[in-house]
Amino acid sequence: MNILDKIVLRKQQEVADAKALVSIKDLEQSTHFKRTPYSFKEFLLAEDRTGIIAEFKRRSPSKGLINGTADVAEVTKAYNYAGASALSVLTDVDFFGGKPDDILAARAANDIPILRKDFMIDEYQILEAKAWGADIILLIASILTPKQINDFGKFAQNLGLNVLLEVHNFEELDRSICPHLDAIGVNNRNLGDFTVNIQTSFDLVNKIPNEFLKISESAISNPKIISDLKAAGFNGFLIGENFMKTDNPGLAMQEFVSEI
Ligand SMILES: O=P(O)(O)OC[C@@H](O)[C@@H](O)c1c[nH]c2ccccc12
């Protein structure tokens, strides 16, 4: 079984446990559930923002522990200050060391869009995202059927959430495109075996219809590559480890941005 299969298997249990603990009614009654989510597009294209979606990630299956001490409110505020267009916050518990409270803390500290970064396999998780104050959900093409992508995308958009579809190759892109998406992200990391290749972004960008925002995800560590990605047609750049592996992720982002 590859790592992605393991994550999805564990996720099914995590979701079942969460459902037993918190009812859909409870989620719908949370204060954040009533707020209107921010527009991902507006912040990605804003002149005074960098297009960077800055990620808070404590650990990952590929790298192990990345940062064991960073405070989510502090780091996300610093990302925001450094010009992030959006924040990405991992909520997967077992493989990425995240927790629901991380979204709540990031939400309380910031007024820019937040992506709930997780492996979405059930509508219940979309309701959680809304209840916790997230603005964007991620749908990973490699673990979902085209019908699930369409249905989850529609469900999320009906709640006012923005939808980011993640693909890793043309086949995934081709089968998964549907009207209920706002942005399409090309993951430069293969989630099955963790190999990274930024060329994946350049190879796929022109296959993404222009009606969608285009995001390049993962393994971005050189500020100089941002202008190439922009020139190729990308609107957004999802960066995690390059910032989180330092003692001061916010400062690392500031320095990165100054070199773009
Ligand atoms: O830390 P990096 O290499 O900058 O990558 C960030 C982000 O793209 C990566 O964390 C990611 C992309 N897609 C995912 C899906 C699930 C979990 C994590 C991810």
From TrEMBL:
<dbReference type="GO" id="GO:0004640">
    <property type="term" value="F:phosphoribosylanthranilate isomerase activity"/>
</dbReference>
<dbReference type="InterPro" id="IPR011060">
    <property type="entry name" value="RibuloseP-bd_barrel"/>
</dbReference>
<dbReference type="GO" id="GO:0000162">
    <property type="term" value="P:L-tryptophan biosynthetic process"/>
</dbReference>
<dbReference type="InterPro" id="IPR001468">
    <property type="entry name" value="Indole-3-GlycerolPSynthase_CS"/>
</dbReference>
<dbReference type="InterPro" id="IPR013785">
    <property type="entry name" value="Aldolase_TIM"/>
</dbReference>
<keyword id="KW-0210">Decarboxylase</keyword>
<dbReference type="InterPro" id="IPR045186">
    <property type="entry name" value="Indole-3-glycerol_P_synth"/>
</dbReference>
<feature type="domain" description="Indole-3-glycerol phosphate synthase">
    <location>
        <begin position="4"/>
        <end position="255"/>
    </location>
</feature>
<keyword id="KW-0028">Amino-acid biosynthesis</keyword>
<comment type="similarity">
    <text>Belongs to the TrpC family.</text>
</comment>
<dbReference type="Pfam" id="PF00218">
    <property type="entry name" value="IGPS"/>
</dbReference>
<keyword id="KW-0456">Lyase</keyword>
<keyword id="KW-0822">Tryptophan biosynthesis</keyword>
<protein>
    <recommendedName>
        <fullName>Indole-3-glycerol phosphate synthase</fullName>
        <ecNumber>4.1.1.48</ecNumber>
    </recommendedName>
</protein>
<comment type="pathway">
    <text>Amino-acid biosynthesis; L-tryptophan biosynthesis; L-tryptophan from chorismate: step 4/5.</text>
</comment>
<dbReference type="GO" id="GO:0004425">
    <property type="term" value="F:indole-3-glycerol-phosphate synthase activity"/>
</dbReference>
<keyword id="KW-0057">Aromatic amino acid biosynthesis</keyword>
<dbReference type="InterPro" id="IPR013798">
    <property type="entry name" value="Indole-3-glycerol_P_synth_dom"/>
</dbReference>
